[in-house]
Amino acid sequence: MDLVNLRKLNAARSARRAAILVTDLGDGTDRLVVEGDVISGPLGEALVQRFRSGKAGADEIDGRPLFFNVHLPPPRIVVIGAVHISQALYPMAAIAGYDMTIIDPRTAFATPERFAGVNLVADWPEDALASRPLDRYSALVAVTHDPKIDDFPIAAALKAGCFYVGALGSRKTHAKRIERLRSDGFSEVEIGRISAPVGIDIGAATPAEIAVATLADIILAFRRRSLDNSGSDPA
After folding, report:
1. pTM for the whole structure
2. ∠ at Cα 74 (24, 88), nearest 5°?
3. Which CA distances in Å does 128 have to 37, 105, 116, 142, 218?
4. Domains (range + CATH), the chain
5. What is the DSSP letter of 224?
6. 127-185: per-residue pLDDT in tens?
7. At what angle do helices 84-96 and 207-223 cross, to 10 degrees?
8. Among the four 22, 67, 82, 169, which has the fewest Cβ within 10 Å?
9. Are 216 and 141 in contact (CB under 8 A)?
10. Are the CB atoms for 194 and 168 separated by under 8 Å?
11. 171-183 and 147-160 helices cross at what angle (nearest 10)?
């Protein structure tokens, strides 16, 4: 690998930005493409597929054999609320390959006994997210029903361009949430990115079923995420 590309790759990985090292198998030359770079034509199409799938492999582009070495930041799920849905979601997320953190300042809920082995933070989201901010490879799920706890991380997720933002609550609850976000200056497009009620509509009735619907929604959002830096949905 070219040393300049190696330095660029290390910088991208440190910043949790996706990158693909494209190597020409014919002459050994390589180039680094960072997610968000605009590449047109067949090469651009191949890069989009690789960024979305996360899978390395070879393709022939314009008669040249190319190998795509894909480096994606590990996606993570941040759940606001140590509730029954969170208990069910954690093992499912681990099986699907997602790192997961649960944040809840309510120490009666956020206990090691209820969440054995979980990365559990019994603190306010404002403080917990200061040390590990949300980013484009984060999914935010807010499930406390308490705007004093949920509102800050939802706003932070929208600002950070998280690939998924979901919030539990009825239509009435979400309507009130929308009004608060509008008053804070968020646009209709930004607010429209929130999946509420959280998860794919499968008729979920139990915490475990809601967790299944939520994880499915997160996976769908991750595989169809925007590849630019706007945070908007892909075309």
Report:
1. 0.87
2. 145
3. 32, 9, 19, 14, 22
4. 3-71 (no CATH), 76-223 (3.40.50.720)
5. T
6. 999 999 999 999 999 999 999 999 999 999 999 999 999 999 888 999 999 999 999 99
7. 40
8. 67
9. no
10. no
11. 60
